[in-house]
Amino acid sequence: MKQVWIFLAEGFEEIEAITPLDLLRRVGVDAKFVSVTKNHIVTGAHGVTYRADVLLEDVDVEHADMLVLPGGMPGAKNLQDHTALGALLKEAAAKGKFVCAICAAPMVLGHLGLLQGKEATIYPGMEELLTGAIPVTEYVCRDGNIITSRAPGTAIAFTLALVAALEGEEIARGLKESIVFD
């Protein structure tokens, strides 16, 4: 079974975290929330509180197939400022694992140097934070093992791209049909 970690920091964008968790689980992927706060309880940008499955210090990159960063502010900034998470993301990218970010969170990947020479997208108006990237405006952009997306409104399209990357286009199409998404 494929393993996906979705990292939560205080102030994350709720729809960008719960959509991947829900839809990935629907196709049999073992998706888990990982708190970077040293506490299982993490509150999103709009005051919704979630309980993470595990803490960052309890995960090992060897067991993950994909790492996902929801955006939101100050959530994305809190992710970017987390040194241990940065090291984990760099290690995962170096090992060819999928490293994915939506909305403001692609700035974390730019900050870490993971977008050098790659196409990537980010929330409109934040393109200068895609350090080293070739900015694009598509809702979802995949360049190798890096998948980025633009905003809360692209959370389903983003997740369908994650499913396609992990489980194949046929599974992604089936999921798309089952949730009646155009």
How much of the polypeptide forms β-strand, as a percent range? 15-25%
The structure class reads alpha/beta
How many strand units?
A: 11
Q: Ranges with pLDDT <50 over ≥5 residues?
A: none
Q: Report the major sheet.
A: 7 strands, mixed
Strand order of the largest sheet: 5-2-1-6-7-11-10
What is Rg? Answer: 15 Å
What characteristic shape results from the CA principal axes?
globular
- What portion of residues is helical? 25-40%
The CA-CA distance between the termini, in Å, is 28 Å
Mean pLDDT score: 97
Q: Note the run of SSEs as H and E.
A: EHEEEEEHHEHEEEEHH
Count of discrete alpha- or pi-helical segments spanning 4 or more residues: 6
Structural notes for this entry:
This protein is α/β, with parallel strands linked by helices. The chain is 33% helix and 23% strand. It is built from 6 helices and 11 strands. It has a 7-stranded mixed sheet. A two-stranded antiparallel sheet has the order 3-4. Helix 1 links the parallel strand 1 and strand 2.
